[in-house]
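Trying the structure run again after the queue cleared.
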Amino acid sequence: MCCSADSAACAQTGASACRLDRLRAACADAGIDAFLVRDASNIAWLTAFDGVFDDEGAHALLVTPRAAVLHTDSRYADAARVAAADGPVAVDDARKTHAKFVADALGNRCDAANAEGDAPAASLVLGIEDSLALGEFRALEAALVEAPAEVPRLHETSRFVLDLRAVKEPSEVARLRAAQAVTDAAFAHIVAFMRPGMTEREVQIELEDFMRRHGAEGLAFPSIVATGPNGASPHAIPGATRLEAGQCVVLDFGARACGYCSDMTRTVFLGEPDERLRAAYEAIRQANEQVEAALRPGVTGKDMHELAERVLADHGFAGKMGHSLGHGVGIDIHEEPNLSPRNPHPLVPGNVVTVEPGVYLSGEFGMRLEDFGVITHDGFAVFTQSTHDMVII
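Done. Tokens:
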């Protein structure tokens, strides 16, 4: 679904080289000489390796101006070397801690730099992620102190690689579209499957099983199936509550395919909805569609959130959303940028965001309508193909 093995290898090599160069440029601007990456998704993005990483944080990537070395262990070494063949990332599976690996690598680099008359070792600045666990940070400090070379200065960064990941490449957009195609197919299936009397959990199991059997390598997140008053909780956990006629059901789900996530929400009605439900659905549909028509480079996440809030208020549902309008999607289900009151920064081409206005009335019902897509040079290209029309079972 993504690409052939040969073309994938070529694409991986080029993508990794480009991404590493972007990181090096960002490091140079920040006065950072080497960068230690421990976040698993950041490592997956920088290496562009397919079929190597899982949920374990077993890897460290050290990036310098001249090299990028992945430190891993024997469980992953063979797959990593295959993925790294002819590419810009070297693989080191020496049986040592990540901290010792970094200390040794930087010591060797400093020895070479001093021999060649480059900057003295004492001036070296090592960038680290602020997500680094405290215990690992202490271990890194200790390993650097014990190394024979001068101790580098640690420079803490926030969202350093995440900000680079916020602008998606065409190859990433293709993978996101592939993940959404599986998700759209799952929606068509589950609408035909659902009936009053089923439990939320039964619907969830069928939905997730369909995605796994039809192209998903996994789930982007645990699916939400919430009926009646449960729908008023945006992150409701599916349980034994049974679907009943006259209610609506919120379905929020996404496949992971080709290493990337999808995310969509639809609200389905069990029988003809009453006027209150119809009014709420019209409100979220108008909010969704007006925001998607307004999205383009230069608008801010704050602008778009406030537009959705105004539309909901105009329909009589002021203050009934409660959450931010949307978020970035990529290797992770939540990435940068956000469509929220806290994001005053202009969107740029390549940003991938969700648009998910909702109305939640505690004790009564909740509903949400979510698409996601990419900011283009002149607008917003929606990946989600499922209808905005009311779906009544």
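The radius of gyration is 24 Å. Worth checking whether this holds up in the mutant runs.
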